[in-house]
Automatic annotation (TrEMBL):
The lineage of its organism: Bacteria, Bacillati, Actinomycetota, Actinomycetes, Micrococcales. Residues 22-108 form the Carboxymuconolactone decarboxylase-like domain. This is Alkyl hydroperoxide reductase AhpD. PANTHER family: 4-CARBOXYMUCONOLACTONE DECARBOXYLASE FAMILY PROTEIN (AFU_ORTHOLOGUE AFUA_6G11590), CARBOXYMUCONOLACTONE DECARBOXYLASE-LIKE DOMAIN-CONTAINING PROTEIN. One of its GO terms (molecular function) is peroxiredoxin activity. Signal peptide: none annotated.
Length: 167
């Protein structure tokens, strides 16, 4: 067929989906912007949204998206103590009832292959959020999980920062 190298010949680099097929990546970015607007319209503030984005990214092992959303979380007013407690949210007392429900929903969406969203999680989260808030958070989870898969598959680099004290 063509003279393009086969993927097996490119062991040092991975296909960068956003560069190889930019129209699909742009559609995903537009979807993400729409989800952000849905969150704002439906009562999900940036603080709560970024907690969800960080947790999904951590669960998926996506260092790139974790960094992006840590930066956004700091801009949204999250402090270092709260940020470091996200992986241990069940044992931590720093999160509100809404934040705890959103973190639980984030886990359920990230691990959707483990039986979907259980009735127990749905009912618990549904007792905290309105239908519109639940839908907004659900779409946020779908969006970040999609980005995580693109980035993890492409092994996007996360170089050290010059100033390691900055989140």
């Amino acid at each position: 067929m063509g003279s393009e190298p086969k993927l097996g010949d490119m062991s040092e680099t991975r296909v960068h989906l956003s560069k190889t097929e930019p129209s699909a990546y742009k559609a995903l970015e537009e979807f993400s912007r729409t989800v952000g607007e849905i969150c704002r319209t439906n009562g999900i503030d940036d603080r709560l949204k970024e907690i969800v984005m960080i947790h999904c990214s951590q669960l998926n092992g996506c260092a790139y998206c974790t960094r992006v959303h840590l930066d956004r979380a700091v801009k949204a007013g999250l402090d270092i103590d709260t940020l470091t407690q996200i992986p241990a949210w069940r044992e931590s007392g720093v999160f509100s009832e809404r934040e705890r429900a959103a973190l639980e929903l984030a886990e359920a969406f990230t691990f959707i292959h483990d039986g979907g969203i259980s009735d127990e999680v749905y009912n618990r989260v549904g007792s905290v959020f309105t239908e519109k808030e639940y839908a907004a958070l659900s779409w946020a989870c779908v969006s970040i999980n999609a980005f995580n898969r693109v980035v993890v598959a492409g092994r996007y680099p996360v170089p050290p920062r010059g100033d390691r004290a900055t989140a």
